[in-house]
Write a structure and sequence with these properties.
The structure is a homodimer of 394-residue chains.
Chain A lengths: L5 H17 L4 E4 L2 H8 L11 E5 L4 E6 H10 L4 E5 L8 H11 L6 E4 L15 H4 L3 E4 L2 H7 L4 H24 L6 H20 L12 E4 L25 E3 L1 E4 L11 E4 L4 H19 L7 H14 L11 E3 L6 E5 L12 E4 L2 E4 L3 E4 L2 E6 L2 E4 L11 E2 L2
Parallel strand pairs in A: 1-5, 3-4, 5-6, 10-18
Antiparallel strand pairs in A: 1-2, 2-3, 7-9, 8-10, 11-12, 13-16, 14-15, 16-17
Chain lengths: 394, 394
């Protein structure tokens, strides 16, 4: 089954308990949706109604939810206790309610860590911080769960591998459906719908979808032709034309986990310039990957790629670091970035995606999700990478 | 044109300046993506890389972005200044960088308001609060922009009306495509794709999409059959069957604005019980709507509907308040909730959506987006509401 089991959740909670105990904390408050999913298996859509999890040093997990999520949480979460407040903003503000409950639970005056001091200001939320509504000795301990999440368990790796398969399938459909004259939406929506439906039919109840309209997705996000120059472009309803550079993105959500697959494609025969930057991008990737193995610092992988950009005289085309951790969140720690001094460890899943951005021409970026192994790495996303395999006949 | 103009943004900034001046503030820091869009017109996908806007008491708007968003922001935003940091986490943490820039800009020791103290902890973000990196007299002033956003301008209302049309179109396709035996995904993905492509072709560059895969969307989000009992269900790849109650949701993003349209549908002839709760839901809606007019408190609209549930003996089927403001965010202030004492004013756009949730049977909820007018309200979403129009022949 492609599901996170109760025993998996219990192992995670036990490790968190030992981390908070060693820090001298009596409790840990979590308001990041991914952290809450990590310790309770409850998947929800964040709104202005705060949802939080609290873990005490005995390993008891309490989930705070609005009334309208109470039975949903009872059905799907593994929390030991589920406590609900009536509504947001309500006659008693939810954060005041949560502070009061923690007081009842005996945490006034205790040492309490948090990942967010209150609530993350989603939608129209407005309200006090947790530290405004409970007198305790608070500290910012966002790295407790982060440091566990960066190394994946066997189950998590299995979910990432399953995600990668469906991301590849969605991407294959995307590539098959590209044609000059098509709107980016036509290509990406039909490919994504078809892949999602196939996923639902093939996997059935052996996995859990995530989100309101979850499944597999492959798209361009506006990175079509010269507009692919913007690394985080949005959909612009672009019309695909012969000569365009396309930068894609594909993923699939499998019980909360998603791998990332991105490719650069060229519509019609590439120009010499397009071929040049495409090959430099492949070279930057190769350099990044050959540096991935346990013990290497994340920062050093970024440094060797930065050096490559400078040596080849394309530093003005650099826009972002080499990659990021990925799992329950699409971008998570660790970061292959000069500012992240952590060492790579077996079990980490990270993206490798150096990009070259050429004004008036476009972006050149592949992204693969890799698993750090005992002696190097393994690609979790498998999809053709060479220019000849990524030329769209037109 | 269905776009937010520079002069519209300037009017908003001028009103914010007068609000912060009257509160004795020298500057306002905004990290909520919707608030940033409101004052700069910059639409972006929030990641671990912080993005923030700062408005000084002279009306100058500075946008802080990561390098990879710099030219994207130059192209699409109306901010007066755009300042970029290199990367997250980077050799200098982005929040430390922003604090330093605000110091250079002269805000050390000044009175600065914020909507979020730092950054909203999106994805793998970890870092200090704004109040940790700049010595200033800080206060939580999230209501400054909120209080402007709750009353819509003419342009905003026009965008909401356009959204409502496409939401209706997507919903019509959804209703047409429902059939017993179909996966919820098949129905919703094809309807959403078709409506989005029609929207792109009909409107072209007269509007801006929003988000990576934006457009129109109509779906069930798992609210199929007995699972429609969960008000905030997620997609469960449900198979639609004769006798099911279905609760839908449709919207379309038009230059950042979206209306909400939801309907309860019955597959095949309804049972007496289904008909009973459907009609009670219509009655709760009618009571809510007849109370909507300028001067009425938001809380009172919720109270009359709560009273109806109690009088009819269905309080155990109550799960949430009557509705919420809607515009740049799908849920925003004001809330038709006992905890919101604000008065309704002309120009507010809010949803009316009392719901009845019956265990083992399902949910009964329509949602319409309405505009408060001088003498009452006007429905912005227009779609059949009666049971006979919402029975799926099967």
């Amino acid at each position: 089954m492609l599901l996170v089991s109760k025993s998996e959740i219990e192992r995670r909670v036990a490790r968190i308990v030992s981390a908070i105990t060693s820090r001298g904390l009596e409790g840990l408050y979590l308001a990041s949706p991914a952290n809450i999913a990590y310790v309770t298996n409850f998947i929800f859509t964040p709104t202005e109604r705060p949802i939080a999890a609290f873990i005490d040093s005995g390993g008891e997990v309490t989930l705070f939810v609005p009334f309208l999520e109470y039975e949903h949480a009872l059905k799907y979460s593994y929390a030991d206790n589920i406590v609900y407040y009536e509504e947001y903003p309500g006659e008693v503000h939810p954060m005041v309610f949560i502070g009061g409950k923690l007081r009842e639970m005996g945490f006034e005056g205790m040492r309490v860590g948090y990942d967010v001091d209150g609530y993350g200001h989603v939608f129209g939320y407005r309200g006090p911080k947790l530290s405004d509504v409970l007198k305790a000795s608070f500290s910012y301990e966002r790295d407790v769960v982060e440091s566990l999440r960066i190394v994946k368990s066997n189950v998590e790796i299995e979910l990432m591998r399953e995600s990668a398969k469906w991301a590849s399938y969605a991407h294959r459909l995307l590539q098959d459906y590209v044609r000059p004259g098509a709107l980016e939406d036509e290509v990406s929506l039909w490919a994504s719908a078809e892949a999602t439906i196939a996923m639902a039919k093939a996997l059935g109840e052996r996995y859990r979808p995530w989100g309101w309209t979850s499944g597999a997705r492959a798209s361009f996000r506006g990175q079509v032709g010269p507009h692919s120059y913007y690394p985080h472009s949005h959909n612009i309803h672009a019309v695909i034309k012969r000569g365009h550079v396309l930068v894609t993105g594909a993923t699939a959500m499998v019980s909360g986990y998603g791998a990332e697959l991105e490719r650069t494609m060229i519509v019609g025969g590439p120009t010499q310039e397009q071929e040049k930057y495409f090959n430099m991008m492949l070279e930057a990737r190769r350099i990044a990957m050959e540096n991935v193995r346990p013990g290497v610092k994340c920062s050093d992988v970024d440094r060797v790629v930065r050096r490559y950009f400078k040596e080849r005289g394309i530093w003005d085309m650099w826009r972002h670091h080499v990659g990021h951790g990925i799992g329950l969140e699409y971008h998570e720690a660790p970061f292959l970035d000069v500012g992240d001094e952590r060492e790579l460890k077996p079990g980490m899943t990270i993206t490798i995606e150096p990009g070259i951005y050429v004004r008036n021409l476009g972006g050149f970026r592949h992204s693969d999700t890799i698993l750090v192994t005992e002696d190097g790495y393994e690609k979790i996303t498998v999809y053709p990478e060479s220019l000849e395999d990524l030329i769209i006949e037109a």
